[in-house]
Each structure stands twice: as structure tokens, then as C-alpha cells.
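Thread amino acids onto this structure.
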């Protein structure tokens, strides 16, 4: 996790992935919410097991931290198979992928995270492995190069992507089952928090779970992370219980407000409202106003602020919604919303 991504980032550092292992559900029945995906996967896996054949290849898409890696491991566990884990960026040469594919045993699960980032030659090799359980490994260069066909044991590929739109058509077509994971409701996150707290041996009250769930941006990874931070606070400065009072006090220390906005999210909204009368204002100008890179504002803050209904992207620039004014405790100007507000020129670039 980089510094500006902070406590409410949906991405995990390597160290955090280790911390996550203990609370990761191992079987489908333990996987909370996402009922439609769970039900569909259950049918797919049971059907395949009944026939004694590996299930179709599975594509899991959705924002980070919603459970794609967890589901890939669950697929292998339910099938009683081994899982091999790699990622699109880790496969630099098609030879790397050929080595993995030809070492798979029958029925293995191959999990490729960030599959949209796989290099083109490796992607093409994957097509024949997925479809015909065969790969052609090219030996030599130039006119003397020869393709040696190698068999691959029947396996199931589980691909995960945060950007399904970036997958090529041929790649997408080779998955027999595509599941999209949605953000979790606060009620589902409360259930998840009770489960995690039980595993971690942390006492948690219902109002404590409600308080943490409301600040978790619909994302299990963030919910589990906030739980660990509130646990620290409760153990060090209070009675050890994750209750509403301790959750509020702990998350105030970490600058996470009651809707899950952190310092940077609030700085963006505050700049929009106070310095630009709510906008519209161009991305670069907004980024300079909060002392951040435009990419950070665009990729780290905006997706959540837009989803939370606090910021809108318009052709003329970023606009604070009425809800944003209220969230900051300001009175919105009357008659602005719905009408086209006057543009604040972007001083730094032509884009919005
Ligand atoms: N439905 C769920 N029930 C219980 N815990 C969950 C669920 N979904 C995710 N988690 C927990 O959230 C954490 C993040 O999940 P996971 O690593 O599977 O997300 P991901 O979508 O693969 O993220 P990334 O794309 O960043 O790899 C894990 O520790 C996991 O325990």
C-alpha cells in the first residue's frame, strides 16, 4: 500500500495479504454474501464433480478486495484440487507460462490474477491450452524455428480481473463461466465483521460492527483492515471490545470519517466546495489544489466519491454534489443542482 492509498484503499500490501490469510473463508458455505455468484459456482462445481471432469474455466471480475482470490482458492478446495497461483504481470514470456501449464496435474486449478495484464504472446498460448489442452512451444528463432506441440493435463483456469473491459474478445470467450462481484451491503459487512472478529478472538458488539461496516466502502478487505485497527485501539486505550464508542475513537485517530472518507477524499471535496464553489473544475486544477498528482485523485479518490454520490464527473469538470455539501456540513447554494453551473477554467490543462 502506498502512503496516499492509506487505510481505506482497496489494494493490499504483501504484508497485509499475510494478515488476511487467517480470516479468509476456505469453503463456499463460509463465503459471505454474493449469493448469486455463490449459487452459480456451486452448480458449476457440483455438476463437474458429478461428471468427474474439471469444470469450465472461470472468470471473476470486480473491484479489488471483494474476494476474487478467496473464491479462486475456494474453487480448488471444493474440487479437492491443488491450486497454482500466478499473475498476468508475472508472466513475462510465453515460455514462463508454458512451463507452468505443462507442469499442471490433471484437475489442477490455475489462478491467474490480473489476467488482463498478460503479455500478448502468452495470451495466445493460453488460448490453445484453455481450448484444446495443448500448447505449441516454439524452439529456435527465425526460419529455423520449430513449434513443438505439448499436451497439457485437463485443468481449470480461474482468471481474476479488476478491468474486464480490457480483456480481449477471444480471451473472454474461452471462459465458460463469468462472475461479477459487487460491492457488499453494510449488513453483509456486519456479518463478515462478526465472523472475522470471532476468528481473531476479538469481542465485538452489534453497534461496533455497524460502525465499522459503514466506513468500509462496501469492501471486505477494508472492513477487515479497519477491524484490526479498532482492535489495536480497543486493546491499547480502552476495554478491548470493538464497540461503537471505540470504533469511532479509533477511526478518528486514523482520519476515516463516518462514511469511510479519508483525509484526501475530504480534501478533494473541501477544495471543490470552498475554493471552486462546487465546480465544475478540471482534474489538474483540483489535484494542484489538494497537493496531489492528478492520477492519484482520479484513481484513488474519485471512484469511491462518485459511487458514494458525492462527486460527479461532467464534460466540463468535476462537480461536488448536493450530498457532498451536506457531508462537509455546508449549505449548498440554491438552484445550482440540475442546472449547468458556471465553469471554473482549468488553469493547468485542457482536459476535465
Ligand atoms: N465474501 C467474503 N466473505 C468473507 N471474507 C471475505 C469475502 N470476500 C473477501 N473476504 C476477505 O477480504 C479479503 C480480501 O479478499 P481477496 O484477497 O479475495 O480480494 P480480491 O478481490 O482477490 O482482491 P485483489 O483483487 O486485490 O487481489 C480477504 O482477507 C478475505 O478474507
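Threaded sequence (352 positions):
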Amino acid at each position: 500500500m502506498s502512503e496516499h492509498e492509506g487505510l481505506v484503499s482497496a489494494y493490499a500490501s504483501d504484508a497485509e495479504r499475510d494478515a488476511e490469510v487467517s480470516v479468509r473463508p476456505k469453503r463456499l458455505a463460509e463465503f459471505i454474501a454474493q449469493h448469486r455468484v455463490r449459487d452459480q459456482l456451486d452448480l458449476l462445481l457440483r455438476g463437474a464433480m458429478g461428471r468427474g471432469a474439471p469444470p469450465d474455466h472461470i472468470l471473476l471480475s470486480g473491484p479489488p478486495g471483494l474476494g476474487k482470490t478467496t473464491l479462486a482458492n475456494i474453487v480448488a478446495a471444493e474440487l479437492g484440487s491443488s491450486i497454482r497461483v500466478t499473475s498476468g504481470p508475472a508472466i513475462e514470456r510465453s515460455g514462463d507460462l508454458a512451463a507452468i501449464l505443462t507442469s499442471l496435474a490433471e484437475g489442477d486449478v490455475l489462478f491467474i490474477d490480473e489476467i488482463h495484464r498478460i503479455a500478448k504472446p502468452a495470451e495466445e498460448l493460453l488460448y490453445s491450452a484453455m481450448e484444446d489442452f495443448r500448447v505449441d512451444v516454439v524452439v529456435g528463432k527465425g526460419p529455423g524455428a520449430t513449434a513443438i506441440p505439448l499436451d497439457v493435463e485437463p485443468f481449470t483456469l480461474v482468471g481474476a480481473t479488476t478491468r474486464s473491459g480490457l480483456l480481449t474478445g477471444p480471451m473472454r470467450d474461452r471462459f465458460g463461466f463469468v462472475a461479477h462481484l459487487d460491492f457488499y451491503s453494510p449488513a453483509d459487512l456486519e456479518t463478515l465483521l462478526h465472523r472475522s472478529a470471532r476468528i481473531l478472538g476479538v469481542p465485538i458488539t452489534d453497534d461496533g460492527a455497524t460502525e465499522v461496516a459503514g466506513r468500509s466502502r462496501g469492501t471486505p478487505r477494508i472492513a477487515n483492515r479497519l477491524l484490526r485497527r479498532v482492535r489495536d485501539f480497543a486493546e491499547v486505550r480502552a476495554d478491548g471490545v470493538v464497540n461503537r464508542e471505540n470504533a469511532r475513537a479509533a477511526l478518528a485517530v486514523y482520519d476515516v470519517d463516518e462514511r469511510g472518507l479519508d483525509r484526501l477524499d475530504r480534501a478533494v471535496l473541501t477544495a471543490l466546495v470552498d475554493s471552486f464553489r462546487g465546480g465544475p473544475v478540471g482534474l489538474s486544477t483540483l489535484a494542484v489544489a489538494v497537493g496531489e498528482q492528478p492520477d492519484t485523485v482520479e484513481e484513488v479518490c474519485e471512484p469511491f466519491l462518485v459511487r458514494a454520490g458525492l462527486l460527479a464527473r461532467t464534460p466540463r469538470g468535476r462537480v461536488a454534489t448536493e450530498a457532498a455539501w451536506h457531508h462537509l456540513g455546508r449549505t449548498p447554494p440554491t438552484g445550482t443542482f440540475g442546472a449547468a453551473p458556471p465553469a471554473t477554467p482549468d488553469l493547468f490543462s485542457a482536459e476535465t
